[in-house]
Amino acid sequence: MKQHLGQIVERLQHVPGVQSVTLTEHSPDAGGVTSFSCRTTNAMSTHIQVLGNTIGPDYFRTMKVPLVRGRDFAAEDERGVPVVIVNETLARSFWPEENPIGKRLGIFASAGLAEKWAEVIGVAHDAKYLTLEEPQRLYLYLPYCQQPRSSMTLLVRVKKNGPEGIPQIRRELLALDAELPVYDLKPLKDGLAVWFMGHKLLASMVGTLGVLGLLLASLGLYGVVAYQVSRRTKEMGIRMALGAERRTIIGLVMRQGMFLVLLGTGVGLAVAAAVTRLIARLLFGISPLDSIAFIGVAVLLTGVALVACYLPARRATRVPPMVALRYE
């Protein structure tokens, strides 16, 4: 079986358009993991539950998971000492402030199997293994050449995204073995789409509500500011009757109105910054204090308030002073 899979990987690596090929026991869209019990060589070390996966060479390049230290698995590891790659969280937990490369990790897979000691040859960047909301987990990767499995998933990265390359990959697999059971061959994004469906629906709902809330806030702000400015029409008539220029009156109204608006915007941003920390676990790929969102909303509301101050003030100063004095 292992030899057969090796031939498949080697054949697909020479297909035009294929960037990398690898094997994995647990496909990213399936969300499965294997549980291990691990400890270090420290005499006081106890066994700690760790999740993991069995993978082939080029897994990290194919999945675009950076290796922050050390090296990837290689074909030469099949005849070498047992090796393992750990994620950053496991490295920090087991060897704080130490270089984990070259350290030995005791791995106990399940009852009936002896504990195996493996040398750490690499540290992979932390990732999400089960759900998007999960905290950082202790995670390790074992090489397929040393830890063969009866069932493995083939992962192929091609230059052109989409289903166009799937028929070609299928043909290559069947050319190697016409009786090879090739099934569930699909772009990884299609499999992940099902996994992320709930999150996308929630994000769409929250985004829609956010846009509606921003629209209502803008309309409400414009209405309140414009009403307050229009109520000063009589005051503006008195100022013009006493000789004040139109631009002076408009400048005064806008300064007074914008002072209150900017003060309210500052308070609102402070409250928003405090509240967003409560939803930090629902945000992926952005910070709770996303500068673009905060600055964008503040600029939009300030612009709305600026227009709400200027237009009614300009309209009021165009009214003849005697008419403005009779305004109620």
Write the layout of secondary structure elements.
Blueprint: H1 2-13, E1 18-24, E2 34-40, E3 48-55, H2 59-63, E4 67-70, E5 83-87, H3 88-94, E6 104-108, E7 116-124, E8 139-143, E9 153-158, H4 166-176, H5 188-195, H6 197-230, H7 233-241, H8 246-276, H9 291-317, H10 321-325
Parallel strand pairs: 3-8, 5-7
Antiparallel strand pairs: 1-9, 2-3, 2-6, 4-7, 5-8, 6-7
Tell me the strand order in the biggest sheet: 2-3-8-5-7-6
Q: Helix count, per DSSP?
A: 10
Helix content: 40-55%
Fraction in beta strands: 15-25%
Q: What labels describe this entry?
A:
328 residues, alpha+beta, 2 domains, 6-stranded mixed β-barrel, two-stranded antiparallel sheet, 10 helices, 17% strand
Describe this structure in words.
With 328 residues, this protein is α+β, with helices and mostly antiparallel strands. It has 2 domains: 2-193, no CATH class; 198-325, no CATH class. The chain is 45% helix and 17% strand. It contains 10 helices and 9 strands. It has helices at 2-13, 59-63, 88-94, 166-176, 188-195, 197-230, 233-241, 246-276, 291-317, 321-325; strands spanning 18-24, 34-40, 48-55, 67-70, 83-87, 104-108, 116-124, 139-143, 153-158. The strands form 2 sheets. It has a 6-stranded mixed beta barrel with strand order 2-3-8-5-7-6. Strands 1-9 form a two-stranded antiparallel sheet. A hairpin with a 7-residue loop joins strand 2 (34-40) and strand 3 (48-55). Helix 1 (2-13) packs across helix 4, helix 6 runs parallel beside helix 9 and helix 8 packs antiparallel against helix 9. The chain is elongated and about 100 Å long. 22% of the residues are buried.
